[in-house]
Amino acid sequence: MYALLIVIHVIVSVVLILVILLQAGRGGGLSDTFGISSTQTFFGTSAAKFLQKATSVSAVIFLLTCLSLAALSTHRSRSLMETQRVKKAIGGAETKAALPIAIPPVKQEAPKTE
Predict the structure, then answer these.
(1) Which of 3, 20, 23, 14 is nearest to 62 (CA)?
(2) Does residue 16 belong to any structural domain of this protein?
(3) Do 47 and 39 meet the contact criterion of CB atoms below 8 Å apart?
(4) How many domains are contained in the chain?
(5) 17 lies in which domain range?
(6) Burial class of residue 12 in the structure, from the number of CB atoms within 10 Å of its CB (0-12 exposed, 13-18 middle, 19+ buried)
(7) Tens digits of pLDDT across the chain (114 residues)
(8) Residue 104, domain member (yes or no)
């Protein structure tokens, strides 16, 4: 479910970017870059209405996938502290840190000088 939602989110993001770039704004949009005078001649007479509706639908789907992914990610992950509390509550083995072994120092005698 989570992976499918991510795939849908990425696809909608790309579609939203393309639809916004194809719309004619003050500068004419991406269609001016290709030498086409307006978006209507590129897609037909009802292209502006279609692109506005496509932008609205894509934006709503993008927002819903963002909220869904945020909600799922909060339920998926836990902090390390909460994981330890859950293990202790269940009665799982406690993790003990490995203590370093103390090695006694070797006594060296100073060489005798005569």
Answers:
(1) 14
(2) yes
(3) yes
(4) 1
(5) 2-80
(6) buried
(7) 889 999 999 999 999 999 998 887 665 555 556 655 554 455 555 777 888 899 999 999 999 999 999 988 877 656 666 666 666 777 655 545 555 566 666 777 777 776
(8) no
Q: Which two tokens stand for residue 35?
A: 């030498």
Residue type, 41: T
Query: Which tokens go with 99?
Result: 């203590």
Contact 50, 58 (CB under 8 A): no
Locate 16 and state its tokens: 């939203």
Q: Write down the pTM of the prediction.
A: 0.53
**Distance between CA 73 and CA 1 in Å, rounded?**
12
**Domain for residue 105, yes or no?**
no
* 102 domain residue, yes or no: no
Question: What is the rounded distance in angstroms from the CA atom of residue 81 to the CA atom of residue 67?
Answer: 26
Amino acid 71 reads A
